[in-house]
Write a structure and sequence with these properties.
The protein has a domain at 234-248 and 346-438. It contains nine helices and 16 strands. The chain has helices at 3-19, 75-89, 126-141, 211-224, 246-253, 258-262, 323-329, 350-355, 405-410, and strands at 24-40, 43-61, 64-70, 147-165, 170-186, 195-202, 234-240, 283-285, 308-312, 315-316, 341-343, 359-371, 377-388, 391-404, 412-415, 430-438. The protein has a six-stranded antiparallel beta sheet. The relative contact order is 0.13.
C-alpha cells in the first residue's frame, strides 16, 4: 500500500467515524519494516524481519475521547471497527480538554526536503546486512586475544505513515534509518568483566559508522577498564563523555514536559524565565536538520513544527506542550515531543576537557540509579577513569554521585565541541566542577 492509498483509506475512515456519531476524528495509518542481524562470538545469533501495518483512530464524542488500533486494513472490517469505537466512546467520562488541535496550528508547515529517506534502501540485500554485522564482530576479534565475548549487530527500518483529521489536517511521512553497533567484553584478572560499546544510527546507509572505527573504539574502551575499582570518596571535577551525557540531559529535560508540570511532578514547575543551569547550557529543539533522526515537518498531532529554544544560557524558556496539557494549563501548545536536540557547543574536544582536570573523573557510563522529577534529586552509579593533572591514571567503577539536578547543572563549567552525531540528541561532552563522589 502506498501513502496515497493510505491517505484515501484514512479519509474514508474519518468519514465513517463522523457518520457513526463522532464530532471529530483523527486517523493514523503506518507501515514499519525492520530487519535486525546479530553476530555473536563468531556465529549468526539473530536474523529477524518484522513488518507491521496499523490503523489508529481517535474519536471525540460529546467531550469524550478514546483511541483504538487495528492491523486489519480491509474496509469491510474497518467499517464495523470504527462504528464500535465511536459507540464505546459514548460510555466514557467527559473531559472538556480533549480535542483536535485548533487548525491554526496546522498552518505554515515547512515544505523543505529534510532528506530523511535513502533511495538506496530497496537495493540492500540480506547478504549485505549479515555481512555488515559479521564484519563488525570479526574486526573487533582480530584486535585482542583478551576478548571473551563480542557481538556485532546491524538493523534498518523503512517507515511510512499518513495522518488525516476531520478538521482539515493531512500529512504523509516516509523515512529510513540504519544502525550498527558493537559490544565487547574482555578478561580481567580481578574477576570483573569490563565491557564497552559503540553504536550509531543514521538516515543514509552510506553514513554508517565504519567497522574499523567501532572495533578500535570498543576494544580499546573495554581493555582500558581492566582493574577498575572504587577510589576514595571526595570532591572531584567531572567530565561526562558525550555517549553517556544523555542520562543527565534526559533527567533535566524530562521534567520539562507539560504533563509533568500539570501533574505537579516537576521540579521545574513555574520556573520559565528563571535560571536552572549555568550559562554554558543552551538547549535547542530543531526539527529541520537535514538527515536528522528527529527531523519532521509536523508532530504527532499534526501541528507544524517550529525551532524552539528550550534553555537559553541556563535560563528555562519553554516547556514541551501538547494540545491536551496546553488546554489544562492554559498554555500555548508548541508540540509535546522532542525532535532533534542540539546545543550551543564549546571550543574544546573531549581530550582537551580531560586535560583541564587537576583531579577528576571522566565518566564513560552510568550504572543504575535514578532521578526524581518532582524534586530534582538524583543518585547515579558511574563507570569511568580517574584523572590527575590532565592524565588518565586508572579505571574506576561502582562509585556514586548524588545531589540535585539544579545544583549539578549550576556547576557546568564547559561544554565540548563534540556533538554526538549518531542520535537525535546531539549532546556534547560536559565538564562539571567540584562534584561529590561516594566511593571508599
Amino acid at each position: 500500500m502506498t501513502n496515497k492509498e493510505r491517505t484515501d483509506l484514512a479519509r474514508w475512515a474519518v468519514k465513517e467515524a463522523l457518520s457513526a456519531g463522532a464530532q471529530d476524528a483523527a486517523v493514523d495509518i503506518a507501515n514499519w519494516r525492520t530487519i535486525e542481524v546479530e553476530y555473536r562470538d563468531g556465529s549468526l545469533d539473530n536474523l529477524k524481519e518484522s513488518v507491521q501495518n496499523s490503523l489508529d483512530v481517535a474519536v471525540y464524542v460529546d467531550n469524550r475521547y478514546s483511541s483504538h488500533t487495528t492491523n486489519d486494513l480491509r474496509r469491510d472490517g474497518l467499517k464495523k471497527f470504527v462504528a464500535e469505537a465511536v459507540a464505546l466512546t459514548k460510555y466514557l467520562g467527559e473531559d472538556p480538554h480533549r480535542g483536535l488541535p485548533d487548525p491554526i496550528y496546522y498552518e505554515d508547515r515547512e515544505t523543505k526536503d529534510l532528506r530523511i529517506v535513502d533511495d538506496a534502501y530497496d537495493s540492500i540485500t540480506s547478504d549485505q546486512r549479515v555481512k555488515t554485522a559479521l564484519e563488525i564482530e570479526a574486526r573487533a576479534r582480530k584486535l585482542s586475544d583478551e576478548i571473551i565475548s563480542c557481538t556485532g549487530w546491524y538493523e534498518d527500518t523503512l517507515a511510512e505513515s499518513v495522518r488525516v483529521t476531520s478538521n482539515g489536517f493531512e500529512g504523509t511521512r516516509r523515512s529510513t534509518s540504519f544502525g550498527s553497533g558493537l559490544q565487547v567484553t574482555v578478561k580481567d584478572e580481578s574477576g570483573g568483566r569490563p565491557r564497552d560499546w559503540r553504536w550509531g544510527q543514521v538516515r543514509l546507509h552510506q553514513d554508517l559508522l565504519r567497522a574499523d572505527d567501532m572495533a578500535k573504539g570498543a576494544v580499546a574502551g573495554a581493555l582500558a577498564k581492566r582493574g577498575q575499582a572504587k577510589i576514595s570518596s571526595g570532591s572531584y571535577d567531572m567530565v561526562v563523555e558525550n555517549r553517556a551525557a544523555s542520562k543527565l540531559i534526559g533527567s533535566l529535560t524530562g521534567p520539562m514536559s507539560a504533563r509533568s508540570i500539570q501533574q505537579k511532578s516537576s521540579f521545574l514547575e513555574g520556573k520559565t524565565g528563571q535560571k536552572i543551569a549555568s550559562e554554558k547550557l543552551t538547549i535547542i529543539d530543531d526539527p529541520f536538520i537535514e538527515f536528522g533522526l528527529g527531523s519532521r515537518l509536523y508532530d504527532g498531532e499534526g501541528m507544524s513544527t517550529r525551532k524552539r529554544v528550550m534553555v537559553d544560557k541556563g535560563v528555562l524558556q519553554a516547556y514541551y506542550i501538547n494540545c491536551y496539557y496546553g488546554r489544562k494549563l492554559n498554555m500555548t501548545p508548541n508540540s509535546g515531543g522532542k525532535t532533534n536536540t542540539v546545543y550551543t557547543y564549546g571550543t574544546h574536544s573531549l581530550d582537551e576537557l580531560v586535560g583541564m582536570m587537576k583531579k577528576g573523573i571522566l565518566v564513560t557510563g552510568f550504572i543504575g540509579g535514578n532521578s526524581n522529577a518532582t524534586t530534582g534529586d538524583y543518585s547515579f552509579g558511574i563507570v569511568g577513569m580517574y584523572v590527575e593533572d590532565g592524565k588518565i591514571i586508572k579505571p574506576v567503577n561502582e562509585m556514586n554521585i548524588s545531589g540535585n539536578l539544579g545544583e549539578l547543572f549550576g556547576r557546568l563549567t564547559e561544554v565540548g565541541n563534540d556533538p554526538y552525531a549518531w542520535s537525535s540528541n546531539r549532546r556534547p561532552s560536559l565538564y562539571f566542577k567540584d562534584i561529590d563522589f561516594a566511593g571508599l
